[in-house]
Every structure is written in C-alpha cells, then in structure tokens.
Amino acid sequence: MINTLLTLLLIQVIAVCYVMSGFPDSLKSAIKWVITKGKMSGSNYRLKPFDCPLCMTFWSCIIYLLCTSQLTIPYIAAAIVLAMFTSTTENIIRMVQDLITALINVIYRYVIDRSTFSQDN
Length: 121
Known about the structure:
78% of the residues lie in helices and 0% in strands. With 121 residues, it is mainly alpha-helical. α1 runs antiparallel to α3 and α3 runs antiparallel to α4.
C-alpha cells in the first residue's frame, strides 16, 4: 500500500515538473503548425490533459492503477487528492529551486570574496 501511494506521489511530481518544463507549450505550437501547414503557430489553446498538471496527475495515476490492477476506491481518492495538490507541489518545487539558487549565490560570493582577499595579500 505504501509503495503504491509513494508511486502515485512520484507520478504527481513528474506530472508537475513536466508541465513546468514548458514542453506542453512547445507541443501545442508544433501541433498547431502541423495542422495549419505552417501558416500558424502558438500555444494559445488548451490541450488537456497534457498542459494541465491536475489532469495529467489524475489520468496518469488512474492509468497506473489500471495497469497494476489496483484500481480501488481508496486509490482513486488518493489520486484525486494528489491531483488537487498539484499547485502546492509546484510552489514547493519553485521554493526549493529558489533556495538552491540562493545557496549557490551565497557560496559564489564567499568564493569570490575569498579569492579577492587572497589576491590583495
């Protein structure tokens, strides 16, 4: 049970990162370009579930549960709850990115300050 819930959580993280990556916009632009034979491009339309982290999480979890013969009411409920928390997961991922960037900047300033100090002596 814990393994299945952890797998569903990882599916949610993957779906959120996939949408955050910007790939769905590139996909939508390519589809529009192919359909219009190069006359139009752009991504100003919805292509659910591929550009919606909530939809992507829900349907990916359902497909996983179907493929592993674990489609039960509790797991469907878990998939729905995880789908509802995709915006929270996105905020957490962005916060971690910002924290890592801030840490790298602090380390970089420390290294530069130390190298400048040692060159002055």
